[in-house]
Design goal:
By secondary structure, the protein is of the alpha+beta class. Helices cover about 35% and strands about 25% of the residues.
Length: about 130
């Protein structure tokens, strides 16, 4: 996935924003909390970085397509070994999951401010933009 496509996929998620920090690194956030990183220091040390579930963390590392992300491993973030380590569709799904994991940690009040609502349980959680 190209950096331009990565950015577009991140920014099309509900209430997602981009800020440039740390040596020109693109940091994608929802509710002020990071869910994905590209460029800048991320590009200098490997590929894209993003938040994952415990299971995805173990699986991606075990299969050799990712490693623990520098400074963020304790929070279950991975860094791809290269920007093309995963097919575009699969990476898009991981970005949506990263976004959902962060949204789930936001307070109910903050989610409401952002126009986001959680539907379903933790295992089958989906996020949708509220209408209204």
């Amino acid at each position: 996935m190209t950096p331009k496509t990565f950015e577009a996929r991140c920014l099309r998620l509900p209430a997602a924003t981009k800020v440039v920090q740390w040596e020109g690194t693109s940091v994608f956030k929802v509710g002020g909390k990071m869910f994905a990183i590209s460029g800048g220091f991320a590009a200098g040390t490997g590929g894209y970085m993003f938040k994952v579930s415990d299971m995805a963390y173990a699986m991606l590392i075990e299969h050799g397509v990712a490693r623990s992300a520098p400074y963020l491993a304790r929070a279950k973030w991975v860094q791809l070994v290269g920007n093309n380590a995963l097919p575009d569709a699969e990476l898009t799904a991981y970005l949506a999951q990263a976004h959902a994991l962060i949204v789930a940690k936001l307070s109910k009040k903050r989610r409401k401010e952002l126009g986001l609502a959680l539907q379903g349980d933790q295992a089958g959680m989906t996020i949708s933009a509220c209408s209204g």
